[in-house]
């Protein structure tokens, strides 16, 4: 349903719903005009939007950690038949619902954690998992749950990364006494953040580029494109032995 409002009304409502992390242009009104990253996430999106199908007609999309709704809005604009945005934070969901209403886009939003995606009981043609992994205490579990419960085909992934952008080939096994690979910048590494980082106590992890790629592969996703050091387009594939999630969905079978 479209919410018809003039610029002053949109600005007042957006201000009341703030602060916004997604700086959205709602009919000429910016939701976060003083954003430290400027036109974000759009400025980043422009660098990798070409890897996502331009026409999503008939497709279903799940936006995990949808925040203010930028990616949900963009996927609906590409013609997706069904778009569901989920976030654990009701403040972000209120922003996303408002943005969708002002934009005249039919998008569903639900309060749900990534750990509980099994409760949805459906799979999606495209899963958007942007800017969430490093906020999670259990990041690999989240990827496993996405694979097992909601991913049907494609996944668009992004994580904050620190360390080297180098990615070196790894072998399938290393001898116990071979340790030099752990010191090389292109070996998969993830930094643990015990306290706050950038003023945010939910910033728990900072993988390097090789680690992001390795975690995706380990969880059963083939990497189709890596157009930005932090962004990966993946396709659901097979998994190796001893790889499975161990977490019950809320409301699901125990």
Overview of this structure, please?
The chain has about 250 residues and is of the alpha/beta class. The protein has a single domain, classed as Vaccinia Virus protein VP39 (Rossmann fold, 3-Layer(aba) Sandwich), CATH 3.40.50.150. Helices cover about 25% and strands about 20% of the residues. The chain contains 6 helices and 11 strands. The chain has helices at about 5-15, 40-45, 70-75, 90-105, 140-150, 210-220; strands at about 25, 30, 60-65, 80-85, 110, 125-130, 150-160, 190, 205, 220-230, 230-235. The strands form 3 sheets. A 7-stranded mixed β-sheet has the order 5-4-3-6-7-11-10, sandwiched between helices. The radius of gyration is 19 Å and the shape is globular.
General form: globular
User: In DSSP terms, counting alpha (H) and pi (I) runs of 4 or more, how many helices?
Assistant: 6
How many domains in all? 1
Order of strands across the main sheet: 5-4-3-6-7-11-10
- In the CATH hierarchy, what is the class? Alpha Beta
Number of strands: 11
Main sheet characteristics: 7 strands, mixed
Quickly give the CATH architecture.
3-Layer(aba) Sandwich
The CATH topology label is Rossmann fold
Uncertain spans, ≥5 residues at pLDDT below 50?
Answer: none
Average of the residue pLDDT scores: 94
Spatial gap, N to C terminus:
38 Å
Helix content: 10-25%
Class based on secondary structure composition and strand pairing: alpha/beta
